[in-house]
């Protein structure tokens, strides 16, 4: 039997999503994707907001957007979808200052939802999230190169911030420290979740490609990228997938008519009992009415075509199975 672990792009539950959810069932935010989410053995998402009703807006530097969701519905919603791990290394975890971040950490911990990439200190931010998924031990570390003013240090809360540069000594030291901690848990699968790069960019720069490959070379099994709000291509390096950007999974953002940031995929990794990575399956999704849905046939077709185009320069080819794209990882 294969173990199936899902990866999503940005999950932003604030603003209009938060307002809608106060007047509809908890699970409504997952729309028609709920059954597929609940059918997975494990699920990892980038949580692009704080879970708090407190805090004050960050004003220390200019921030145009501030994302916050009511934890009384948001935490149960994450639980209903079967989320196991929330990556928190991103540019919104301090949108409502330290109090709201601490609320987020406490509410996730109370719900026993694992987290990585942010904490009360840099030491805590570098700690891996470790979960058992259908008997499989999974460790996730998370980093971001966004918003350096949100970086944690030895005495202040924030994110596991790095420069995306494999030659940068501080980056190498920090990443290796996090990976050593993760390997100390003796995981069967090691994931690096990266909130990297600017918005609305469809291709990773060469520095990201070099960095992603380096992560694989030092022992990471899956690179889970996000931040651009649009999905990017997938590369396979040494038999391991690099998802350069998973796009947006649910939010209230304005939709670019050309880039279609409302469309992406649920990325499902299948791993055999003997440790072999079997395949990565991409299920097309789209956002409508502040909820994520299985993509309609036309949207799914366009997303599949776009993913093929973006991945071709990496030598990545997909098969088709129903609505899904399938990337074989078997050697």
From TrEMBL:
It comes from the Archaea. InterPro entries: Capsule_synth_CapA (IPR019079), CW_Biosynth-Accessory (IPR052169), Metallo-depent_PP-like (IPR029052). Pfam families: PGA_cap. Residues 4-253 form the Capsule synthesis protein CapA domain. Belongs to the CapA family. This is Capsule synthesis protein, CapA. It comes from Natronococcus jeotgali DSM 18795.
């Amino acid at each position: 039997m294969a173990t199936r672990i899902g990866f999503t792009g940005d999950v932003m539950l604030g603003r209009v999503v938060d307002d809608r959810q106060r007047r509809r069932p908890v699970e409504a935010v997952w729309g028609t994707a709920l059954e597929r989410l609940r059918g997975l053995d494990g699920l990892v998402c980038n949580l692009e907001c704080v879970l708090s009703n407190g805090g004050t807006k960050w004003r220390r530097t200019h921030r145009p957007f501030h994302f916050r969701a009511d934890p009384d519905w948001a935490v149960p919603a994450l639980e209903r979808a079967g989320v196991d791990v929330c990556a928190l290394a991103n540019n919104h975890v301090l949108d409502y200052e330290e109090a709201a971040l601490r609320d987020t950490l406490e509410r996730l911990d109370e719900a026993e939802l694992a987290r990585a990439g942010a904490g009360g200190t840099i030491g805590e931010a570098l700690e891996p999230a470790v979960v058992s998924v259908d008997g499989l031990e999974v460790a996730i570390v998370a980093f971001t190169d966004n918003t350096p003013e949100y970086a944690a240090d030895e005495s202040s809360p924030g994110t596991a911030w790095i420069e995306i540069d494999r030659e940068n000594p501080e980056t190498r030291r920090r990443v290796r420290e996090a990976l050593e901690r993760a390997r100390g848990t003796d995981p069967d699968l090691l994931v690096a979740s990266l909130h990297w790069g600017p918005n609305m960019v469809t291709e990773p720069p060469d520095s990201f490609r070099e960095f992603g490959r380096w992560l694989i070379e030092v022992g990471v099994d899956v690179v889970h990228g996000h931040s651009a709000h649009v999905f990017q291509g997938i590369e396979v390096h040494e038999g391991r997938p690099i998802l350069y950007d998973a796009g947006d999974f649910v939010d209230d953002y304005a939709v670019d008519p050309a880039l279609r940031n409302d469309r992406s995929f649920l990325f499902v990794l299948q791993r055999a009992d003997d440790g072999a990575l079997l395949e990565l399956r991409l299920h097309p999704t789209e956002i409508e009415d502040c909820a994520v849905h299985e993509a309609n046939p036309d949207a799914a077709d366009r997303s599949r075509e776009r993913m093929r185009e973006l991945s071709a320069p990496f030598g990545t080819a997909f098969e088709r199975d129903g609505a899904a794209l399938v990337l074989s990882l078997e050697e």
